[in-house]
Amino acid sequence: MFFSLLLTAWLATAPGGPTASQPPAVPGHALRTGPLEPCRIYGSVYLETDPGRRRYCYGTVYVEPEEAFADVVIFKEDNKLFADKAGLWADAPARDFADYVLLVTTDRSRADFAIHYTKVRSFAGCKK
Questions:
Q1: How far apart are CA 101 and CA 15, in angstroms?
Q2: Rounded distance, CA 73 to CA 105, Å?
Q3: ∠27-29-32 over CA atoms, to 5°?
Q4: Phi then psi for 46, rounded to 5 degrees?
Q5: Distance (Å, rounded) from C-alpha 48 to C-alpha 127?
Q6: Region 15-35 average pLDDT
Q7: Residue 43: which region, alpha, beta or left (left: phi > 0; alpha: psi -120 to 50)?
Q8: What is the pLDDT of residue 55?
Q9: C-alpha span between 71 and 73 (Å, rounded)
Q10: Is 54 exposed, middle or buried (0-12, 13-18, 19+ CB in 10 A)?
C-alpha cells in the first residue's frame, strides 16, 4: 500500500507525467500551428456541433445565411475524390473518417471564418 502511494507520487511529479501538456487529439495533417487559412480546407469535412469537443476541432465555423458575408462558398460533393479544391467539401460520416473537423457555432464573433452553401459547383471557392 505504501509502495503504491510512493509510485503514484513519483509518477505525478516526474517530467512527462500525466500533468505534461499534450497536443490536441486531431489528425497530424490537421494540426494548426499558425493562423487558420480557410482556403486550404477541402476534402472530407465533419461539422461538430458539441462545444465540449472544441479541443478536437481544427477551427470554428459559422454558417452564414447570405453569400455576400461568407469567407468561403461551399459546394457539397457526394464523393470525396471530387472534393479536391477550396470550397468543395464532402460530408464525412464520422469524425474519425474526416480530413478536417470543424466546430459549428451560432455566434459569428466566435468563429474563425464563415461559410455559405451553394447548389452550383462553379460558385464554390474562397472569397478572400
A1: 31
A2: 17
A3: 90
A4: -110, 125
A5: 23
A6: 54
A7: left
A8: 92
A9: 7
A10: middle
Q: Which three cell numbers stand for residue 9?
A: 507520487
Q: Per the structure block, which three cell numbers stand in for 11?
A: 509518477
**Cell triple for residue 91?**
460530408
Phi, psi of 117 (to 5 degrees): -90, 140
Each residue's pLDDT tens digit, 98-116: 999 999 999 999 999 999 9
- In the prediction, which pLDDT does 26 show? 47
Q: Specify the length of the chain in residues.
A: 128
Question: How many other C-beta atoms lie within 10 A of the C-beta of residue 43?
Answer: 18
27-86 pLDDT, tens digit per residue, is 445 555 667 899 999 999 999 999 999 999 999 999 999 999 999 999 999 999 999 999
Any alpha helices (H) in the chain, and if so which ranges? 2-13
Is the pLDDT at 16 greater than 90? The verdict is no
